[in-house]
Structures are given as structure tokens and as C-alpha cells.
């Protein structure tokens, strides 16, 4: 794995902080710098040991960095990328960790032509939790986690290779695909489950919460996630989420209809087919 | 807590086996007998140490027992209760662990009058997992778990008190309510989340499973549950599940509509309201 002289992380919360900790533990860079909006988060990231140094200025932060990782809320990523691409040294690679990719990658590719020798490659490490903030960061967050790296007609092949290797060195299982494929797959396995969890938690009357047990706990865990972060993700992957919603509703409504008609055989068939899929899924995967 | 000379558990899988282990660990009975349909499950329960003795005959199994617990699939409970009530000694109490209560309790109360001195009280310990079988049983399963005990106009008050004390002695947080209230509350916090989890797992294309991470894992965990067991539960709580489905769909569709209209403020409001509820929920509860 290529070692960097300097890696800059813009936005050092749960994901950015975990990248900093993982890079430092594996000594993948001589220096890890964080870029922050607020002095308080800079102090917290230094205290957590996720970065070596920090600044509130993007231009200063990216100076001399070989790898720049944007780990801020999705809607802010293109604007930050514009500044980073404009200030990075020649040969630098910029990536992000946004949960939707079509909008982010197309916005950034529009500006990329003007930044000679600096390349962007989109990433989506599928790790995280309902918690937020650098205090929840941990160096092993990406071990065994899927990480999708986007490849388009405009993606620089050497930069792509470097980004793939970078995530692999953090323990992630890297998959390459175009941003449209990413948004479609992730809408069903991540974005829609969040919407459904928010829907379940939101529809339970407060006085019934005390009857919830393990099933309710797990099914709704991600409804404790940050509403603004997720509103951004939903809006930047709108059409694929609406499509995923229609697919889910078809299955869900078939189950409810079979219950409504007391069709035992049909209910068992639908549940067994869902169970067969769920039984094939394991996370982290047992076979690398 | 009253000690029993003999406790009989009819159906010794995950729940029945955990009751056996908990009773034995706490020495709540001199003898724990299991009743089985198949010799192979009798052997597995003896091997697991969940019972002291076992039989395939209900009449023989309940003989001399002060407490009889029916831990079999919901549809089988009234039929088994009929046999248990008819063979139990005077003064014995029969309870069950079925996940729906209206149908079970009304079926059993129809027959109860003929069994002088033997009383039935419905229970629903809300513990378990997507796993099945006595091998997954554990003595601490009920610690901190909600357990709903049903109270109707026909419930014997002394038998009710004994059953409440029994579940408390196993560490459960007991709530008393009538079967209709039970079925309504549980439809929203347990039955519907199962349907939604089956729906999510069932609608993900097999080739996208590898992109699932922690969110998908937790949101769909209960979709690995036994299809036949849950089909029975859904059919015996049909009308409340359909009602819960309408409540969930209203919230879920509001979120999707706000996404469809790119109404950022509305999305954040709906997610924040769901998050506030989910953040109030903890399991096992931190304050006893």
C-alpha cells in the first residue's frame, strides 16, 4: 500500500474520525490533518487522537496533501470538493464518503476539468452507526465493511487504483460500480431500511414503547440516526429511493393481503422466501 | 415467591427451554417436567438440562403439577390447554406464552368452566430471538423483558397473582392488561416490525445483499424467524395487525411524499419526531 506524506480529512465526525484512527494505527501517512467548521470539534478530534493537527481553513488544510477525504454531510460535499480541487497540489487525489453518489459525482466531475493533475474518485464506505461525533469513532470501523468506489468514463485509472487500495488497507471489501448502480443498490439495502425504521418508530404511540423488546430494538435502531444527515441523503437519492419504496411496498402488501385473506400457505411462502434471503446474509461476512 | 412441587412445560423450544433453565437455576420447583411431540426433542431438552424428566403424553406430564406452562406454537395452544385443564390436579394453574392473546384466551375461557379448581391465566413474555430450539435457550432470557399477563372478568384473582409473581421471579417486568389491549399494543411494537422486516429482506435482489451493512443487518434480523410460527401469530392477531399496518403506512408514506416533493423541512420534522421516540426507548430498560 502506498504511504502518503500527508492525508487530509475534511469533516472529522464518526466516519472521518474512524478514518483518521485507522490511518494512524496502520501508519499510512506521516501526518493526518483535519479540517473543521468549529474550533470545538477540532479540539474534540485532537483529544480523541484521530488527527495530528487541525485547521478551520480548507485551503491551508489540503496544502501538500497527497490524499484528501471529504467526510462531511452529503449536501456540502460538492462545494467543499470545489475548494479542495482548486487548492490541492498536482497529483493529489480527492475522495469522499457520501452515502449517495450520482449527484455528488456528477457535480464534482463538472468542475474537475479545470483542476489539472488533481483527480476525484467517489467512495462510500458502508459503515457507521446511529451514533454521531468523533467520540464514537473507532479504528476498526471499516474492517469487513462493504466500500463502494465509483468508476465513470471520466475517472482517472491510477487515482481509482490508489483509492481502491486505500480502502482495502483499512480492511474494507471494495466493490467498483458506476454511481447509478450504487444509488440503486444502496437505496434498497440502506436508505429504504432507514425510512422504514423511522416509519416504525414514528408510528408507535409513546405509551406502547415499554412493550418493545429485542425485535423492536433492532428493527428501529437506525431511527436514532441524525435527521438532517439522512434528509440530505434521501434528497440526493430521491428517484432510486422512491423506486425502492415501490419494490418494498409490493412485498409488504402481499404479506398483509395474505394475512387479511387468512391465506396461511401464501403467508408462509412469502415469509420463507424472505427468510431464505436473510439467512444468506452475514455481516461482517464470514468468508472475507 | 411460591415454590412448586412440580412445574410442567409443554413444548420445550427456545421459550419453554429458557423457562425450564430459569426455574431450575432459581430452584422454583422440585421437579421440572417437559411434554414433547417427538422423542428427539425430548432428548435434546434433557441434554440441554432444561428439564428433569420428559414424556410424550400430556395427561402423564401434567399429573401432580401445580403450574403448567404451554410454550407451543399459538394455534396449538387452545387444544393443548383443553387436555391440560382436563387432566390437571385441583388447584393447578395453567398459563401459556403465546404472542397473541385475544383468540387464545377467549378459546380457553370457553372451556374453563368445566374444570373445577383449575385456572387459566394468559401470559406473553416478550423475549426470544430469530433462533429456535432448546439449544438457543438461556436462563436469563426473561431478565428485564416485558411480560404481559392478561386479566379478564373471568380470571381467578389468586391464580393471576401467582402468575404475576412467577414471571417477576424470572426477572420479567410484568404488565397486566386485557387481551384486546395486549393485541393492539403488541401488533405495533412486535408483529408489524416482523412483517416489515420480512418485507425488506424479501424485496432486496439477491445480488445486492453483499452491499448490506449494520443497518440492513439489524433492521431485518427478525426476518430469519420461523415462517410457520409467525404465520400463526399473524393470523391470530389479524385485525390489530391490519390496523397497525395502516398506522405505519401513514407515517412511512408521509416521509416518502416529503422526499418526493423535496420538502427538506418536512422530512427533518418527521425523522426528528421518530428519533425522539426511539431515543426514549431502551432495552433492557436502564431503570429496572
Order of helices and strands of chain A: EHEHEHEHEHEEEHEHHHHH
- Biggest sheet overview of chain A: 6 strands, parallel
Mean pLDDT, all residues of chain A: 94
User: Ends of chain A: how far apart?
Assistant: 19 Å
C-alpha-based Rg of chain A, rounded? 21 Å
Number of helices of chain A: 11
Give the largest interface pair and sizes. Answer: A-B, 84 and 84 residues
Oligomer: homodimer
Q: Write out the strand line-up for the largest beta sheet of chain A, numbering strands in chain order.
A: 3-2-1-4-5-6
What is the percentage of strand-forming residues of chain A?
5-15%
Shape of chain A: globular
Number of E strands of chain A: 9
Helix content of chain A: 40-55%
Poorly predicted segments of chain A: none
Task: Name the structural class of chain A.
Answer: alpha/beta
Amino acid at each position: 500500500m502506498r504511504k502518503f506524506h500527508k492525508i487530509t480529512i475534511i469533516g472529522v465526525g464518526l466516519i472521518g474520525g474512524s478514518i483518521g484512527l485507522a490511518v494512524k494505527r496502520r501508519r499510512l501517512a506521516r501526518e493526518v490533518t483535519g479540517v473543521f467548521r468549529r474550533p470545538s470539534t477540532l479540539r474534540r478530534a485532537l483529544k480523541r487522537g484521530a488527527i495530528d493537527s487541525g485547521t478551520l481553513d480548507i485551503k491551508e488544510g489540503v496544502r501538500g496533501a497527497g490524499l484528501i477525504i471529504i467526510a462531511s454531510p452529503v449536501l456540502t460535499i460538492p462545494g467543499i470538493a470545489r475548494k479542495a480541487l482548486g487548492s490541492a497540489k498536482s497529483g493529489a487525489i480527492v475522495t469522499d464518503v457520501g452515502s449517495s453518489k450520482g449527484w455528488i459525482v456528477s457535480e464534482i466531475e463538472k468542475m474537475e476539468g479545470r483542476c489539472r493533475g488533481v483527480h476525484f474518485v467517489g467512495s462510500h464506505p458502508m459503515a457507521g452507526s446511529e451514533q454521531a461525533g468523533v467520540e464514537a469513532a473507532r479504528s476498526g470501523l471499516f474492517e469487513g465493511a462493504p466500500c463502494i468506489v465509483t468508476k465513470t468514463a471520466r475517472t482517472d485509472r491510477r487515482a481509482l487504483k490508489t483509492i481502491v487500495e486505500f480502502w482495502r488497507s483499512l480492511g474494507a471489501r471494495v466493490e467498483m460500480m458506476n454511481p447509478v448502480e450504487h444509488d440503486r443498490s444502496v437505496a434498497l439495502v440502506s436508505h429504504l431500511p432507514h425510512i422504514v425504521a423511522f416509519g416504525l418508530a414514528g408510528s408507535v404511540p409513546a405509551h406502547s414503547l415499554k412493550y418493545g423488546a429485542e425485535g423492536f430494538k433492532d428493527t428501529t435502531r437506525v431511527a436514532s440516526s441524525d435527521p438532517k444527515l439522512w434528509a440530505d441523503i434521501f434528497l440526493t437519492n430521491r428517484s432510486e429511493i422512491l423506486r425502492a419504496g415501490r419494490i418494498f411496498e409490493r412485498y409488504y402488501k402481499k404479506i398483509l393481503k395474505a394475512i387479511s385473506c387468512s391465506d396461511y400457505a401464501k403467508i408462509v411462502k412469502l415469509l420463507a422466501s424472505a427468510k431464505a434471503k436473510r439467512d444468506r446474509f452475514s455481516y461482517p461476512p464470514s468468508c472475507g
